[in-house]
Design goal:
Order of helices and strands: EEHEHEHHHH
Oligomer: single chain
Strand order of the largest sheet: 1-2
Structural class: alpha+beta
Number of helices: 6
Strand content: 15-25%
Largest sheet: 2 strands, antiparallel
Shape: globular
Helix content: 40-55%
Radius of gyration: 20 Å
Length: 171
């Protein structure tokens, strides 16, 4: 049984491994309706919790909310924020996605009777994570990643494999 949905915004301080997070209850009037307002509230939270002398580089996917006209206007008035958008289907490049994987593993081990219970578990997880922060560090060599990308591109360009060993087996 589903009791509701929560939206978690997370910003990862790469150097310290700490997170700035905001949990928002759903639903909104319609899907996507006011997501930009939640995103703006999160940007303001990041602004408040980050020393004023630091520039803020945000790596985000191409979700329309991140590029909403009101968001663009806010970003123009806050030049220390620099947006960097990952290419489509490249969320793996964003280290905060690694954090979301850890959170997902934590949540899926449990069962929740309500959205409030889920929110409390997430908040507990986030607090524990920030008490003992750890950096996510790339282990793969850039050359290896590029080699795999190149192999995947070649496979896609070659098209689907035409043979099907099950169909070709004689009976």
């Amino acid at each position: 049984m589903r009791h509701g949905t929560l939206t978690l915004f997370a910003a990862l301080n790469y150097l310290e491994g700490k997170l700035i997070t905001r949990l928002a209850a759903r639903p909104r009037p319609s899907p996507g309706q006011a997501c930009h307002q939640e995103w703006l509230a999160f940007l303001k939270l990041i602004d408040q919790q980050t020393p004023a002398d630091l520039d803020i580089h945000i790596i985000a996917d191409n979700y329309a909310t991140h590029k909403h006209p009101q968001v663009k206007k806010w970003l123009e008035r806050h030049p220390r924020f620099r947006m960097h958008y990952t290419p489509t289907s490249s969320s793996w490049m964003n280290l905060v996605e690694r954090f979301f994987g850890d959170l997902t593993a934590f949540i899926t081990e449990k069962s929740f009777a309500s959205t409030r219970e889920l929110a409390e578990a997430i908040i507990t997880f986030l607090a524990a994570r920030n008490e003992n922060p750890r950096r996510y560090v790339w282990r793969a060599k850039g050359e290896d990643v590029l080699r795999k990308i190149d192999a995947a591109r070649r496979a896609l360009a070659a098209g689907p494999v035409q043979s099907n060993s099950i169909l070709e087996t004689s009976h």
